Amino acid sequence: MEDHVIPRRVVIIGGGFAGLFAVRALRRAPVAVTLVDRCAHHTFQPLLYQCASGILSSGQIAQPLRAILRRRENVRCLLATATDVDATERLVHVVLSDGSGLALPYDDLIVGVGVRQSYFGHDEFAEHAPGMKTLDDAHAVRRRLFRAFEMAEAVEDPKERAAWLSFALVGAGPTGVELAGQIREIARHTLDREFSSIDPGQARVLLFDGVDAVLASFGPVLSRRAQRTLESLGVEVHLGAIATEVDERGLTVRRQGGESQRYDARTVLWTAGVEAPPLAGALARATGAKQDRAGRILVEPDLTIAGHPEIRVVGDLMNLNGLPGLAEVAMQSGAYAGRHIRHRVEGRKPSTRPFRYLDLGSAAYISRGRAVVKRGRLHVSGVVGWLIWLFIHIVFLTGFRSRAGAMMSWAVVFASGSRRERAFASGEAHAVDVPEAAAPSPRSA
Ligand SMILES: Cc1cc2nc3c(=O)[nH]c(=O)nc-3n(C[C@H](O)[C@H](O)[C@H](O)COP(=O)(O)OP(=O)(O)OC[C@H]3O[C@@H](n4cnc5c(N)ncnc54)[C@H](O)[C@@H]3O)c2cc1C
């Protein structure tokens, strides 16, 4: 088939960190870019838990893609879900929001659709234990958190009340640790004087993980410090404990010794494990690409798929020597893929340099004034870690207005504990029809 038309058509699937950095690298290139995303906004995933816990609003962590890209004249945004790739005809099949289909021709394809929550073969848990990957998830978690305190206030049975005041989190990675800290802070500092029948400070927060360390990827020193900090906040940490059952009343865990234990907790949140979305399988079938156990696509050192130099996989969806699923990896890989295409269309000699990830470190927030940061051999925790965390997030938040708004919200919550973003939708499952008022009986004369 014809190699390409002019201007070269670049389709980028996914407007996450990887997709946006690929767009940015192509900004002055003579190419026609189509950015396809199933959402109209870019979500700053590392702060989803702050939206869920009422610190930040949706608008502070999600920016319209069109607004971010309004000055990019060579970019067209398309709100659509990519469902398949035809690698022979070089087409991406997408479904628009009204259900109709479209085929987008490409000369170069960049796939950066990220990963989704994995329930390790127990997808039935999802109904009772929402994950934390999208803005919808953050809203669902916010509703569950604040509704649980309302229910605890309303019920009279002490056992029921205790179950509503028990919050279980499965997965002690950064998201689980951050959420656990937030729930204790909400209980102790945000809601402390707002209820009459319950003491929110009595809320139990249980954090479970199958491995024997919290924040295992941060190494043993920071892991121990993070666990101590969590415990000082009142979080009950249960390591070597795997969730085997989750239902609307709580969860059962199996410990390393083999014994099982049941916990009544009306709020269970899932912060463990990721897997590739279905598009990865479609891409693998279309190209013969190999997938790892989580379904991520194994890529060549230049991020292309073997035998398909026109298709690149970037961000969380790619597996290159086991690089971690971090925002920095996504940004750098997206930028690398975009740069390669630009150099090619500009007629420069194609670089043979493989993609190299420059590790800028990682950070996890635990509570007000406490965070852990790891960069190479540097391990920082406590207030200094928290200041570094703050700096990193202010720098990387997309858009001036989100940045300024987020700083104001942080100042309020850090100074007073109060959270402004606590509104939540009532949720269809709990909507109750009020019976129409009985017709007034005719007055007796
Ligand atoms: C709760 C949470 C906390 C995190 N904290 C940190 C942190 O502190 N530090 C850090 O470095 N990293 C953190 N990460 C990881 C980081 O956010 C990811 O590594 C990064 O977002 C990956 O970028 P990406 O572009 O590959 O994918 P994503 O950001 O997931 O973007 C994928 C995009 O593709 C779109 N999409 C998906 N499927 C389709 C489809 N079929 N068709 C069209 N569009 C599609 C999605 O709508 C989305 O916009 C966190 C992640 C989460 C979920």
From TrEMBL:
Spans traversing the lipid bilayer: 378-400
One GO molecular-function entry: NADH dehydrogenase (quinone) (non-electrogenic) activity
Source species, domain of life: Bacteria
Flavoprotein in keyword set: yes
Entry EC number(s): 1.6.5.9
Recorded family membership: Belongs to the NADH dehydrogenase family.
Name of the protein in its database record: NADH:ubiquinone reductase (non-electrogenic)
Record organism: Actinospica durhamensis
Organism placement in taxonomy: Bacteria, Bacillati, Actinomycetota, Actinomycetes, Catenulisporales
